[in-house]
Amino acid sequence: ATPVRPMFGLYFEGILLGGVCAFFVGPVLFTLLDASLQGGIRTGARVALGIAVSDVVAIALVIAGLGPILTHPAGARILGLAGGLILLAFGGALAWKANQIEAPTAGRPAGHPFWAGFTVNFVNPFVFSFWVGAVGGVGTRHGWTPGVLVPTFGGMVTTILLTDLLKAAAASALSRHLTGPVLAAARRISGLLLLVAGLALLLHSLVPTILEP
Question: Do 162 and 93 touch, CB atoms closer than 8 A?
């Protein structure tokens, strides 16, 4: 069995790595902030939980040996195409419905916040690439046993979840001081950023195919 102190050290290492992840900016952040601004802390928390669960599933798939398949050019291209289309759909919906703002205290925005967080995070091929690198790095340095992987990635996912909850709480608190037009503008900006991210992901996936002879 892994001694308590090394397990705590691995968990602490996971906390540090998760803290670095907290500064990543991408489509999932725009989704989290928009949900928190429009639906309040409860809605943001559901998105954050969806993100955390998708990370756990991605880590499990990588450890199970599917990482090379998901990061292979063909697999990454399929995932990128699907992810790009989904981001375009999310972004288009946000931008189109920007003026349909509910009171943040209602906590009942359209859609399913948990699945929004899960899907936007899970279909991003860069997320899988990150976890492949993280699992490979941790496994190479410390070993591939559950006693190593569970505390390390437990620390990472816990930290990511907690920092996402803090972001959701901050956005929810900010929303109480914003007027309807400002919230509508924030939603429109979030939608446009998701559209740009989706378009970039589609181009990244399609361009190699177009250039192939």
Answer: no
